[in-house]
Design a protein that fits this description.
amino-acid biosynthesis; alpha/beta; serine acetyltransferase, domain 1; 5-stranded parallel sheet; Ser_O-AcTrfase; 269 residues; EC 2.3.1.30; 6-stranded mixed sheet; 10 helices; single chain; 45% helix; serine O-acetyltransferase activity; UDP N-Acetylglucosamine Acyltransferase, domain 1
């Protein structure tokens, strides 16, 4: 078992770092030793640890940890891209959030990260026609984390959702790779229309706190949406929009807004 675990860790640098940090955390705070052992050190792979956290956080009187863990294990075994995306999201959070100084923090403590990974399980269920189970997971994620992502939405990888309070992402929304969004963001519709009715967010976009992007509109790659803005029309690539309703106030100001996380408007308005 030890040799197998060593081989897995050698091939998975993200898991190796989380595992090593967990040992350091136990030494620094022995009272949390049981928590870190059950959530990280007890498991042989990142996927197993992720499935455990998923089941532990979302279990309730209606649904046991065992059933939820079996679902998560099945999903990640069937679709390895779930684990790959979870690693990319974790690294993105570490690189972009100044409050994150260890790889284990998102997995253990950050509800935005945990909610996003639970969505990925729900999306797997939804894509396979297991709609009621996917909606159950969506409901529990909303109840536990205050994040409501419809399982039919399509989310890329390398996504950071900072703080994550009151995030709402609708059924036909599409979010590209390497997107960063802060709390109270809504990617919603504009009324009772059916069909394709939610925003399409390009790669590398930064969405500020409290921004509302509404309707079947496109936000071009590497753009910035200022905090508190209400976006009702298409946003060109590499631009900054601000206001209610939002208007173009300048260029994005850098090549990768979602990575630099610079939300200050300097002379644009």
């Amino acid at each position: 078992m030890e040799k197998r675990e060593a081989r897995i860790k050698a091939l998975d640098p993200v898991w190796r770092r989380i595992h090593d940090e967990a040992h350091e955390a136990v030494a620094a705070e022995p009272l949390l030793g049981g928590v870190f052992h059950s959530s990280i050190l007890h498991h042989t792979t990142f996927e197993k640890a992720l499935a455990f956290r998923f089941s532990l956080k979302l279990a309730s009187g209606e649904m046991s940890e065992q059933i939820l863990r079996e679902i998560a294990d099945e999903a990640m075994a069937d679709d390895p891209s779930i684990g790959a995306a979870a690693r990319a999201d974790l690294v993105a959070t570490y690189e972009r959030d100044p409050a994150c100084n260890r790889f284990l923090q998102p997995l253990m403590f950050f509800k935005g990260y945990q909610a996003l990974q639970a969505y990925r399980i729900a999306h797997w269920l939804h894509a396979r026609g297991r709609l009621d189970f996917s909606y159950f997971v969506q409901m529990r994620v909303s109840e536990v984390f205050g994040v409501d992502i419809h399982p039919g939405a399509r989310m890329g990888r390398g996504i950071m959702i900072d703080h994550a309070h009151s995030i709402v992402i609708g059924e036909t929304a599409v979010v590209g790779d390497n997107v960063s969004m802060l709390h109270s963001v809504t990617l919603g519709g504009t009324g009772k229309e059916d069909g394709d009715r939610h925003p399409k967010i390009g790669d590398g976009v930064l969405i500020g706190a409290g921004a509302k992007v509404l309707g079947n509109i496109t936000v071009g790659h590497c753009s910035r949406i200022a905090a508190g803005s209400v976006v009702l029309e298409d946003v060109p690539p590499k631009s900054t929009v601000a206001g209610v309703p939002a208007r173009i106030v300048g260029e994005a100001g850098c090549a990768q807004p979602s990575i630099t996380m610079d939300q200050i408007l300097r002379g644009e308005v």
